[in-house]
Amino acid sequence: MSDQKPDQNELMFIGLLQSFVSSAWIQLGRQENPVTGKTEINLKEAQFTIDTLEMIKKKTTGNLSDKEQQILKSALADLKLKFVELKMKNDSDNTEDN
């Protein structure tokens, strides 16, 4: 483990990522919405947040530390997996209703 402290920009960037990731988990119904106190799924908003994180990943390519890159890559993989799972369930439920 390195003794080197992360710089202020790295801490701020990781905080920004955590904000988007937390929002996505709320939108995917995995965390309670602190405003409403409810757990709800909003796939449209979750897709927008995931797309925003993808855009950040593309726009920052070559400018991130290894730690920032790994956090972003891991978060996107987890969010996309859950999104696809919920989307498939939602599509299946809608098919059964017809």
Count of individual domains: 1
Tally of strands? 0
Task: Figure out the total of helices.
Answer: 3
Please give the CATH architecture: Up-down Bundle
**CATH-derived topology:** Methane Monooxygenase Hydroxylase, Chain G, domain 1
Shape: elongated
Order of helices and strands: HHH
- Beta percentage is under 5%
| CATH hierarchy class name | Mainly Alpha
Q: Can you give the mean pLDDT?
A: 92
Residue stretches low in confidence (pLDDT < 50, at least 5 long) are: none
Tell me about this structure.
The protein is mainly α. The protein has one domain: Methane Monooxygenase Hydroxylase, Chain G, domain 1. It is built from three helices and no strands. Helix 1 runs antiparallel to helix 2 (43-59), helix 1 packs parallel to helix 3 (66-97) and helix 2 runs antiparallel to helix 3 (66-97). The protein is elongated, with a radius of gyration of 16 Å. 13% of the residues are buried.
List the helices and strands and how they pair.
Elements: H1 8-27, H2 43-59, H3 66-97
Task: List the defining traits of the structure above.
98 residues, mainly alpha, 3 helices, 0% strand
Tell me briefly what this model is:
The chain has 3 helices and no strands. The chain has helices at residues 8-27, 43-59, 66-97. It is elongated and about 55 Å long.
